[in-house]
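Build the 3D complex.
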Amino acid sequence: MVSVEIVVGLLYSSVSLLTPILLAGLAELLVERSGILNLSLEGAMLVGAFTAFMVAFYTGSLGYAMLAASIAGVALCMLFALLTITLALDQMVTGLALNLLTIGITSYFYRASFGWYVSPIPPHVETTLQPVEIPVLSQIPILGKVLFNHLPHTYAALALVFLSWWLLFRTESGLKIRAMGEDPQTADYLGINVNLTRYALLVLEGGIAGIAGALLSIGYYNMFLDNMTQGRGYIAIALVILSRWNPLLLLGAAFIFSFIDALQLRIQAFNVPFLPYQFALMLPYLFTIVLLLVAGRKVKGPASLGKPFKKSR
Amino acid sequence: MLAAELKKITKVYPGGIVANYEVDFDLRKGEVHALLGENGAGKTTLMKILSGCLKPTSGFIYVEGERVEFRSPSDALRKGIGMVHQHLTLIPTMSVLENLRLGLVGQRFDMRRMLTEVEDLSRTLGFKVRLDSPVYALSVGERQRVEILRLLLSKARILIFDEPTSMLCGPEIDRFLALLKSLSYKGYSIVLITHKIREAMHVSDRITVMRMGRVVATLDKDEVRDESYLVELMVGERLVPAVANARPSHSKEALLTVKNLVVNDDRGLCKVKGVSFELYAGEVLGVAGVEGNGQKELVEAIAGLRRPVYGEIIFERKNSYSGRMNYIPAERMELGVAPTLSVAVNSVLRRFDDEEFVERGNFLNFSKMNEFAKRVVSFMNVRTPSLKTPVKYLSGGNIQKIIVGREILTPSEVLIAEQPTAGLDAKSAYQVRKALSELASKGVGILLVSSDLDEILELSDRIAVISDGKIVKIFEKEEADPVMIGSYMLAGEGLGHNVRATVSTD
Amino acid sequence: MGITLERRFLLIRAALALSTIGLAFFAGIIIISSVGKDPLQAYYWLFQGAFSPPAIPETLIRATPLLLISIGLATVFKARIWNIGAEGQFYVGGMVTAILSILLKDAPPSLAFPVIVLVAGLGGALWALPPAILKATYGINEVITTLMFNYVAIYLVSYLLHGPFRDPVSMFPETETINPALWAPIVVQGTRLHVGVLLAFAVVVPLAYFFLRWTAFGLKLDVLGSSARTAQYANINVTRLVIQAMLISGFLAGLAGGFEVLGIQHKMRLELSPPTSPYGYTGIAVALLGYLNPLLIALTSFFLGGIINGSMTMHRMAQIPVGMAGIIQALIIIFVLASYFVEDKLAKKAMERLKLW
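Done.
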């Protein structure tokens, strides 16, 4: 018999694990709606995780750590913007290259600070982000436990789902973003500053992705590990495809994914004899592929997605 | 009183081509001013300068007597100048309302006020538009009206139309020209870019004729004694002869048979609704129709680029030629060539299975490839630094020449020619028409799809009229008459309007 | 006129490639100085470890898996199929090799060896197949699927090495050492240069050069890479081509894994690929810096193989973290991309000057 406790626990950690992937996915969704495919989302999360850890380690301030993480994410996405918007380079390869760069840079500076032979207990920060219990609501049986005792970022991410839906479909800015994602030439003709808007969206994405990465290093863990994002950025991009570029559907897709992730962690923790932990670790990746196969076939995104835009005179 | 004035406008393109040279032009308030000239005379360039799309190399622009400089089309729109281009600037996946809204970005916006204005304008101009319908579901004429509506909403007082009737026909053209008149009575000043003399005479108050980048004359309509005078002004002495079309009557041997073909477009809308015809050896079968009536999908299905939903395409490989079906696509850059590859490779683009260039199924014979590429280059007079140059560095016209030359020089049994002379200079266009006619004389079956009815009438042995995804009539050359063809072209369109109109009233 | 223009562009391209490397190293100076180390001393050790005569055989050994992988990547990259799954395909090739070598340890080596090598390649190809099919038939983004498959491969190998195939006497998760009779034969005595190195440089490189440049197959890849719609128009069976290219790419990565086990490690380990510059990802830099041309890739794989070894020497002698090699590689990719931009600009300028309108 499966006890209620276990189910509540599972759902609670699903919601909790949802946060970084949902934040990253929402940011990428907005950027993709404007016609840019930013694979360096993964890298932005990784530098965010690294920077947050370093700042938290040396200053002890989680606030500064978050701020620094988002600045680092912005810096990386600005570099991506410079290469793909201003120089109109291939977005796919540029994104890949920047991800390799961040893996190298984070690992290099981590080792430059802490040395090559990290002792059995790697350096860690003393305090991590703490959940905030929402009064009254958290007292609701079951639902209160699942939904209303999370990091502030979780609440922010959920709010952001509706905010970004509203932005995209109910505001003039959203109209502009969607127009340039479909046809940047026409948008430009109508007096919309395509490149500036895309830069702005990438700044936003960098900031959010940096924070999403920071949640990994100083939220769920208290340390930094090489390549600790483990493809989470790529998974977020896959979820954006599944959501058909709709923030509300993204929430659903991200929840399904984080549920699998939570399940996977349970399997590891309970040490199920017939299921080695490596198979549990594989689950999120296999699941992403299966999801893509089931719901991501021949999905049509914004018409100009991934194509460089050159302003004609 | 002048609405706008252009003085001593010169435009030199980066390639060194002089599109306009010291052109003077003025537009009076409330007039319809036709800008008449052949393709490439510099009309569009001049008006793109007035509407802020292009910057003049030198010269001055005045609006209501005030000197202005535009950095973008929206700059010009702020001064009340709007242009309806040949390629409409609507976003197909968005609704009419969203597209209208896009014309007003960056301004104080009130949805209720916009809706009232749309309603007022639609009523006075006799438009019927469903605001929530996506643009891709509209006919070309309806799209044009949405585009006009958008300009009027953004308070344009000067309206420029670039060959607006080229995508319309018959009654739709009349309806459009009447709209121009009524706009001018309401005080709008209008420039009509056209190469059709009759149209200019029909609707305009004044006519400016351009030739080779210069203004030849500006006349009041009443000054024009007869139309042949305008023809002289337009073309000067250089008259392109029509292709002699005196082929022996073609055989009744069908090379290509299409039966009950049904094809959907990318969005799953049914675009070809049961088309059947036969293409005989040695004939040119012209397909006439308003753009967007299923021609594109029909051709793509025949060429094997789109899977039909239903029906048969029977292409019997007779032994007369290599048994190929050649295809000149309308879409040049993303379909007709591989932009990053060389002129040589692009000259044999569709022949990677051909023993002549690929020996034993896989090994390339570069010298044969270069030899053939040289033939294409010299036949069409392609201007390229070498055969190794990636085609993306060539001009659009030269790329078009490579595609047309390749498909004409490659032996074939059937040739599908979609807008084969679009974007070519008059001399090359003549050469292409001549080559097509000669191919037909040699027994090739040619399916000619063109929005240029004159071209179709000049070349075709039979003319199939396509409307709303169906072939509504096939004319023999002798019985073909532009007016009749026009009315058949609209058969399906008209029906569509009625259906939509009834829907929009409830 | 025409010829001089093309010649000039070859020279410009060479100059750009060299300045790319120069820029990457310049950026490296900043990064090394930023942690308070002496960049000149660091670079001295880097080159000692990479390209000094005694280091050359080891650099060639490093270059071999890179070369095989990046020639496979060049094949798919030409068609703009972004396979980043070479790492997983490499691991699968290695694992399959170790398993088969254990199973066939008593078989006649002259028979077993070629079979094992072949199966290593097939293993890699098999691992590339699902993403290839998803891409070719459903248009699912291959970057995501191949990356997901990397993680699946690594965890699968990890399971096999911790579980069924773990050498019971070893402290680490690794297989037992395979029968020396099955080791890849050494071709230069006194070094670790094995037959795989020879095969990669002397057979695979010229063969790949020929196939990519002189056959319809190579040309079709170019057309597909130039424009997918054009490929369809050119009567190319795109589905088949994508799958073929991915299989070749996977095969070569699997082969690389096989030779790494048979020639160098002599067992399957979790760290078959150097953790700070995994071969599968470094191969991307190698292929792009080599302009997807197998002859140039032979050079660039030697160069980047040297950087990997050199960075280890640099770490030992000057305490510079090994991540440095990864940074240099990524910077090289970025600068190569930027050089495409410069080249395009220059070409357009040159064409404008010719006035061919």
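Residues 311 and 324 of chain C are 7 Å apart (CA to CA).
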